[in-house]
Amino acid sequence: AKMFTQVYGDNGKMKEYHYTGPVEHRFSPYSFNGGTVLAVAGEDFAIVASDTRLSEGYSIHSRDSPKCYKLTNTTVIGCSGFHGDCLTLTKIIDARLKMYKHSNNKSMTSGAIAAMLSTILYGRRFFPYYVYNIIGGLDEEGKGAVYSFDPVGSYQRDTYKAGGSASAMLQPLLDNQIGFKNMEGVQHLPLNQEKAVQLVKDVFISAAERDVYTGDALRICIVTKEGIKEETVPLRKD
Amino acid sequence: MTRKRKNVALEGLLEGGHTKAPKPMKTGTTIAGVVCKDGVVLGADTRATSGEVVADKMCAKIHYISPNMYCCGAGTAADTEKTTDLLSSNLTIFSMNSGRNPRVVMAVNILQDMLFRYRGQIGASLILGGVDCTGNHLYTVGPYGSIDKVPYLAMGSGDLAALGILEDRFKPNMELEEAKELVRDAIHSGIMSDLGSGNNIDICVITKQGVDYIRPYQESEYKDKRQRRYKYRPGTTSILTEKIVPLELEVVQETVQRMDTA
């Protein structure tokens, strides 16, 4: 359609057939690889879940590319957006964790990792990492903690957060089921681990129904004081 | 001529200015067709996307044209719907006027005329298949008005995936069952490899004896098995204020009409 509006000039007559002159082609350093990430914090556990589909445009690059990365025994990070930046960012975080451990003789806590990530992201304020991060883990008291970020490092601690391509579909559902928003006369029961895992699975099944970039499989990382347990559940592949 | 200038000027207004036209729903599809010994087999997936969101999980992409012709449509959903509806109406009028069944080549020419006249602004890529007195035919019509007469075909965002299957296993003069399986496999490949196609598979078999529109030919194997029930108790949505207005009605006139139950 664009081709033909350039054929007619402003006076309604056809323009000259050959277009002479330089044509500028733009190279975009970014690309969107899809994927959805979700994190939920409980009383003594945290869950970080992501789908495993890596896509570009209308094609699928991989059906088995999880977006949760284990950082320490008590922290998992989920990254979605541009896969190139996700890989580089996690490499940088791993290196910084090692440096901290060697200098301070202890592992970084979840809160410390979150603060560090914020400065790493803001360091690239004018050529950002195209990554939507969510950190899930246990804080110093052993309680579940979720930290959600934007691409340039703004972060806050949450109870639950969805990020990535289907985030707009999942967040309202979590607001209702975990935050009990927009409901009257419902008992505010604290979330236990089994219910939280069921909710996360159901919520991803719904996301895969309506978002084309979400699907294939779901990787759930459950963080407790015993360690990190991983579970994989199949999702729609179409 | 002035109508065309007006359309062109309007297009310039929307895109050049800061108003954003609403994005039309595209079908992001896989459609395929195959000519076999006894007729024509058409197939389509059932997902309609609006950007990256699935707008319709069970949309019908195989449209009725006439008793002996069906058309699969890819591209902008509204365009394929309306173009095929218009074609169907025109052909019905023609067959009433002339007393003849329309031939496939006539339908293709009408489509080509219309789409070329609109210079590609109607985003409809169609696969037209039908059986008439001259034989079994399969045509493709592009959005700019190009046509091609072929024995097998795939269109839409999943066309390359489907074409891979068709190129591998197509043979001239196939049996009907074999052709149905081939089209089903081609659409299935589009559904798995293309993000714009998905859900179920519809098949339409057109033969001299009649039409078999199988919808769905194959249901998606992904049934959502959710673990919890998410039904809300009555009273969950809070009622903030309630206003009851009693309607004071008085009987003005009463008539009784006996029903004839004989």
What class do helices, strands and sheet pairing of chain B give?
alpha+beta
Q: What is the first-to-last residue Cα distance of chain B? A: 65 Å
Mean pLDDT of chain A: 91
**Beta-strand fraction estimate of chain B:** 25-35%
Strand content of chain A: 25-35%
According to DSSP, the number of beta strands of chain A is 12
Between the first and last Cα atoms of chain A, what is the distance in angstroms? 30 Å
Pfam families (chain A): Proteasome
Organism (chain A): Oncorhynchus tshawytscha (Chinook salmon)
Family (chain A): Belongs to the peptidase T1B family.
Protein name (chain A): Proteasome subunit beta
Notes on the structure:
Chain A: It comes from Oncorhynchus tshawytscha. Chain A: One of its GO terms (cellular component) is cytoplasm. The complex is a heterodimer of chains A (238) and B (262). With 238 residues, chain A is α+β, with helices and mostly antiparallel strands. Chain A is built from five helices and twelve strands. In chain A, the strands form three sheets. Chain A has a five-stranded antiparallel sheet. Chain A has a five-stranded antiparallel sheet with strand order 5-6-7-8-9, with helices on one face. In chain A, helix 4 (167-177) packs antiparallel against helix 5 (193-210). Residues 1-5 of chain A have low confidence and may be disordered. In chain B, helix 4 (159-169) packs antiparallel against helix 5. Chain B has helices at residues 2-16, 77-98, 104-117, 159-169, 176-193; strands at 31-35, 39-45, 48-50, 53-56, 62-66, 69-75, 124-132, 135-141, 147-149, 152-155, 201-207, 211-218. Chain B starts with a helix and ends in a 44-residue tail after the last strand. Chain B is 31% helix and 26% strand.
